[in-house]
Amino acid sequence: MVVKDQPLKAVCEILEKEYGIHFSYSRELVDLSRKVTVTAYQQRLRSLLEQLFAPEDIRFTRVGDQLVLQQIKRSTHTISGYVQDAVSGEKLPGATIYAPTLKQGTTTNQYGFFSLTTVKDSNSLIISYVGYEPALLPLDGQTNRILLVPLRPLASLQEVVVSGTDKTRLQDQTQMSKVHLPLAAVKSMPRLLGEADVMRTLQSMPGVGGGMDGVGGLHVRGGSPDQNLILMDGTPVFNFSHFFGVYSLLNAEMVKSADLYKGAFPARFGGRLSSVVDISLKDGDMRNYHGDVAVGMISAKINVEGPIVKDKTSFIVSARRSYPDLLYNAAANMEDDAGNKGTVYAYFYDVNVKVNHIFSPKDRIFLSLYKGEDNLSIKGMVDSTADQAGRITENSRFQLGWGNTIGAIRWNHIYNTRLFSNVSANYSQYAFKTEYGFQYNMPSTGQASDLYGKYFSRMKNVGVKIDFDYRPTPNHAIRFGAAGIAHYFKPGLMDLADKGPNPVIPLDTMKKGLDIRGTEMLLYGEDDWRLTENLYANIGVHLSGFLVEGRFYHSLQPRLGLRYMLPHNWAVKASYTHMNQYIHLLSNNGTSLPTDIWVPSTQRVAPMLSRQVAAGIAKTSTNGVFEFSLEGYYKAMYNMIEYVNNNSILTSNLERWDENVALGKGWSYGGEAMIRKQKGSTTGWIGYTLAWSTRQFPDINQGRIFPYKYDHRHDVEIVLTQQIGKHWEASASWHFTTGSPLTLPVSSYHGAGTASPWDPGSGVDVSVDRYGGRYNYRAENVHRLDVGISHTKQKKHWSRTWNLSVFNVYNQKNPFIYYMKRDEEEKQRYLSKVTVMPILPSITYSIKF
């Protein structure tokens, strides 16, 4: 008899037919679902039965013409502890712990903690993590205490590749629609201006877009940037970009790992509709001092970490600053053919500090601080002949600044081998400010003005949360918790005045502002449950409420994920997710900019909500070289907001902003496929997305459904990394996206009009546009190739790396913004585009010590 990879129940049915025997057992007490492989030739029945049932702890007894099966009760014990870097003591989230005896395993949580219940006669556990040597942990005498399992980093670049044995296989994860990025994967991508970047790496995944070149933002499965919950060590971040999306908020050297959830959201997450980006930061080396310094063409950074008290307290500090304002002032002084002059200053900085202290084997505390700002300043002057009587002089200045301030304190506590908790308190603030000045002087008429404008907006959160991680049995992994969040909104304060002695047009000082508070509360619970040998489920519920302006909104959000194992190690997965979002982002029609403002739900504008279903298949090849996944999804969204009548932030009264928006519905659906090579000198992936994203508003586009601005029909990503010997690494990524929808006029009237109500005789040419529908035109397709190569050399006490990267290798002129331009000679208007990201080579030199 030869049986390969079949359930034990099927083998028993074969034996009943061949030997004329009958098995009697209770399906509730005896588990025959485990798959076995048997090869038996001329073997005695008793010997064959012992071979089948002994490994499964099943006893058989003959009673008459029946064989009665009984499950042997075996005593168990629970193993728990932390998996950490053997050199630095850094805890490793997402490490795999596998028990060969049980053919079961688990993974560490985001703090590196694990808990696994095994039978007492289990010999050992296998522990592995990406970029580290797997370890074998003997279990003799290891019970009833908290273990510290050290893993040694792999020594060479050639070895630091994602290995199929170093992580949980796709078919073994109930969670779908998830991308896990260790730091090694982020650093292997081509580097724009010499910087490895977490968000840019995530944008290269199927179902994820990053907007146009030069614009920050993350668009996941047709959603808008405000529908992404970005967590930095558990603290929400409201704007994650520097330099209009060229850099991310975080220095990559601070990042330990990042998890992106595109759907099938676990119940512990809530508050956004489209995605969750959960970023874990490094804790700092507990044993040795070391760091790195990197200098590029427009920015420099430094990272230092080490022990404050060895094996007790550690710190890590990271600082980064760009310096175009220091190096390129001469180049920034520009003059065009008309004699117009201008100067541009721009820079950003950010600072990260984290302290980690161990009070006892069961207690740890973390303190995290972040501060970052961007500043852009443009000064210009025009000096031109206005008429025969004199000259007109004009001076203008514009300043834009935005930034984040973040702080958090967290306490980890282990109650026993099965129960772990994390208590956290955090603070997050995002603010931006614009200032505008314009001086005008016409000596011939005596007219002069000195215009000044200021616009300011701020949002901040203060939150407390407690999370529990409970592992009662090998078949259950339970998480539950509660949180409270106080939201403070000051969405706009505008001041506009003419301070000149003789204003051209009288202006009133206008101030508009709000000061709104909202309180959010939530409870959640989820269970990763093994129902049978082949069927797994993640079942959860997220209950939340939001109190604002005397109104209380509440929501019950069920979550369900299913996984069923097919023959040949294929997994079929499905999920249903309900999400609510209590805050909105008011955005100008078009691109996402730092000046977009956050506002809460109100009496008129209810919270957004979505319902998403997804299904797919996944597999990691037997040798661990390739991963393959295919998913389809459908997402319905309600209470979407959109400005009506071409209003924008600057033209609307923010005190009554909810009267200037329309409420409607949205739909996103499509499919995503990805094949990924994880082992060998050549690694990378190919991803493809076919997607639709539409909206419908009763008061917009005559109530007809229209494609939304984040509707991209096709998206292709190709990423390759090549290790060349021990010192060289080359990488390339190519990206293609179908063009975005635009709203353009279908006709226009051009003629004479009145320049000023105070001077009816003055005439000026005016244009009046007629629009046929919302997002009625498709922009051109976007594509780009980025390449990079690095050379690393190890010295006695330090290493150095040269990196050469080229962004947009073939200088593709991808659009940043479109506008209508008029040809005065032809008396016609045509569509023109502005490109801001041409080919950009960069060289970066870095050292590690």
TrEMBL record:
Principal location listed in the UniProt entry: membrane
Location within or outside the cell: Cell outer membrane
Transmembrane keyword on record: yes
Membrane topology, as annotated: Multi-pass membrane protein
Keyword Zinc-finger tagged: no
Keyword entries, A-Z: Cell outer membrane, Membrane, Receptor, Signal, Transmembrane, Transmembrane beta strand, Transport
Positions of the TonB-dependent receptor plug domain: 195-272
InterPro entries: Beta-barrel_TonB_sf (IPR036942), CarboxyPept-like_regulatory (IPR008969), Plug_dom (IPR012910), Plug_dom_sf (IPR037066), TonB-dep_rcpt-like (IPR039426)
PANTHER family assigned to the protein according to its UniProt record, in alphabetical order: HEMOGLOBIN AND HEMOGLOBIN-HAPTOGLOBIN-BINDING PROTEIN 1-RELATED, TONB-DEPENDENT OUTER MEMBRANE RECEPTOR
Protein's recorded name: TonB-dependent receptor
Native source species: Chitinophaga qingshengii
